[in-house]
């Protein structure tokens, strides 16, 4: 047999909210009904997601999740981010819905991944697939702590434990740290703070990140983290 297709079917509290959000990401509605049960089918190129509405459903308690494998994770993230900026004026980095940045995932054997948490509390986990090489293993305690925090916050959904790991890492003397890694850790700690509804800590971490001295080469290496810092600054209240 061949040509089988598997489509995730995910729960939500409001079908209207789900359709509106996924349209921002470039999906279109291919089918929708209210009776006998509220149901919608959404499609973006070869990516299909279906949703059903449940009375009394709490997105904060959702276990809904699925994997999306793509050969160009950067292109898909940029498209989603552009849709968010056009609709909301910023990339949603906190609350529900939100989207994380592409980062190497230790639990994905170093392959890059990012997550979209939709209005139903479902985690759409986008993973690099195909020819891309895994990122090198992190070197140094600070880089290893960052890798562990990413797994906890971006994959497991435990930002509180990720914050504790990062705070412990940042409290250690940093004389031998790679400055770029320190910027990445500070920016990621700011992102985790926003997820935890702690804008004061997020602002403090971003100020610290901007104060790290960087050479021109280091500034180039830190470009992604610095771009993230700009998005996080825009998300501050």
UniProtKB/TrEMBL annotation:
Report keywords, A-Z.
Antibiotic resistance
Q: Which residues cross the membrane?
A: none
* Record InterPro entries: Bleomycin-R, Glyas_Bleomycin-R_OHBP_Dase
What is this protein called in UniProt?
A: VOC family protein
GO-annotated biological processes: response to antibiotic
What is the source species? Actinoplanes auranticolor
């Amino acid at each position: 047999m061949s040509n089988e297709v598997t489509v995730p079917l995910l729960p939500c509290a409001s079908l209207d909210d789900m359709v509106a959000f996924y349209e921002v990401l470039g999906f279109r509605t291919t089918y929708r009904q209210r009776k006998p049960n509220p149901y919608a089918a959404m499609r973006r190129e070869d990516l299909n997601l279906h949703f059903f509405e449940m009375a009394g459903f709490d997105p904060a308690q959702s276990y809904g999740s699925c994997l999306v494998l793509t050969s160009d994770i950067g292109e898909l993230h940029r498209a989603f981010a552009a849709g968010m900026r056009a609709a909301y004026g910023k990339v949603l980095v906190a609350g529900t819905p939100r989207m994380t940045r592409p980062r190497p995932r230790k639990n994905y054997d170093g392959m890059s991944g990012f997550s979209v948490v939709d209005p139903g509390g479902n985690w759409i986990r986008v993973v690099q697939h195909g020819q891309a090489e895994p990122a090198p293993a992190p070197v140094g305690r600070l880089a290893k702590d960052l890798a562990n925090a990413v797994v906890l916050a971006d994959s497991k959904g435990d930002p509180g434990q990720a914050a504790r790991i990062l705070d412990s890492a940042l409290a250690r003397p940093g004389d031998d740290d790679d400055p770029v890694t320190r910027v990445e850790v500070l920016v990621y700690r700011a992102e985790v703070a926003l997820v935890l509804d702690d804008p004061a800590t997020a602002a403090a971490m971003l100020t610290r990140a901007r104060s790290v001295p960087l050479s021109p080469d280091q500034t180039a290496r830190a470009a992604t983290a610095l771009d993230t810092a700009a998005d996080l600054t825009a998300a501050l209240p």
